[in-house]
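RETRY 2/3 - previous attempt timed out on the joint model. Re-submitting the same 539-residue input unchanged.
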Amino acid sequence: MKKNNIILSGVILFLLLSFKYSENFVEMGTSTYDDWTFKTIIFKRQASNNRIKVKYFAAKDYDGTSVPNRYNSWSYSRNIIAYSSGTYMNSYDLSLSKPVGVTIDNGVIVNRKIADFDGLVIVYATGGIVAANIDEGVTISGINRKLYIKNSKDKQMFMDWCEENKATVFQTHLLAYKNKLKIDKYSSKQTKRERRFLAVGKNDDGELQYVIIHSPQETSLYDGSSKVLDYLQSYEDMEDVIFLINLDTGAQDVSRAYNSSGTINKAFEGPKSRDEAVNLLVFYWD
Amino acid sequence: MFTHKKIKILLIVLTLIIVTVIGLLLRGGNKQFIKIDTLTNNNNDYNIIQDLQIDSITKLKDFPYNKYLNSENIGNVKSIDKSLNILSSIIQDTLSAQDTLSKALTIMLYKKYSPKEYDTLNMFLNWSDNLLLLAEKNKANKYFYKGLNDYWYTEIAKCIENKKIDKYNFKYRYLSQKCQDKKYNVDTEMSTFDKVIFNIIEGKLSYVLKRFWGNTGVIFKIFIFLGIVITLFSYYTLIKNIKSKLKNKNEKK
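RETRY 2/3 succeeded.
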């Protein structure tokens, strides 16, 4: 009897250890909305007691260590849920490409040159992710006014703050902000291609959650954003969509998701291998 | 196998390739920047701020930007520091004084010169680097100077991006690298061919050969080797033909 109990405890412990994260807080699936089929990963960050975290690798390290190598060293003892390529790069030659727009990686300045995108995404060391509308200003701790980073003086204050606080920052298209579509139908590019979006918002219970929406079906940035916003607000009951940003699926289309057992969920497998990644947005369980 | 006609065509093609490569190499351009000092209006200690009749914060909206830029010795960054201190003490508001002079030394100064030439762009980068020295010395106005430096690096990086056609030009590459060293990324598409040309311009022929030997496959090496043999053979045949023709002409005479 005693021996059986030990075996049973061992089996339970093995099963518990083999699960990478609690599947109660991560939903992966395929949805159809308005004749449009897409794949979603819902990360219930708040419900998980903030155990779901985000980390962004913006560029090569200062010593030239590539993003895949940085990821490999960092992820060694971590439970990865999913990752995707992040923002835009300035060249199709990935060995030479650099991020477009203001970029800071863990307090290290990668690019000071501001781009025309109005979204400024900040990934905190605590694992949270927020996006600000550059035109509305950015609020940071220790400075009792908003910083408008299109103004060079404010931008320098913001960058010094990021360096001191080891913040990670990148710029991208802010497609929707505070429940409203920001992208313009006529001035945005009409190119149709597969798309990947990241939405952050609150559900009916006011709980914060992150959602990756991947559209294998080709769509323009405007049509895709518009459909995603409608879908989140109606079908997924995300009453408050705080922001919706675009994740690049261009030359560096890297994407992967793991089931809670640690096996790869093939539905989210991107065309490029992680070894080719030039930046990576990682969701993990801590 | 090699008829005269074929050799002639081959030679024309090869000559065109050589001329193109030489042309690209020549586009390396002048390696010396011309010293431009347009920002220096006078060499004495005169400071215009006191004579601008800006004696209160309400009058800042009428700040005579052009008069300031035409009279102030902004080439000497210490003069800017002096102006900022004087203006701050007159209007009793440092932030407003910073904002006004910041507008003068960014948007208004850019409008005045609209810099496009490499020598002028280089002058503005050097000038804005000097402003950073003031940021280190003068902590109270640190972000004023860092902001000015940021504005000029951002604008010049954008300006260089619009000159991609000059990517083999030394001054283009120098300024582009200077911006990138300060983390202002300049979008420049570079192919392998571009890299080979850059290294030849830089005189790194042994490096190019080393990379060629180490990074290319056997088939590519054979292809290049055959290309060199055919080229040399073609020139040899051409010279031989010319010699025999000249000899025939002389004999006929």
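Chain A has a mean pLDDT of 89. Closing ticket.
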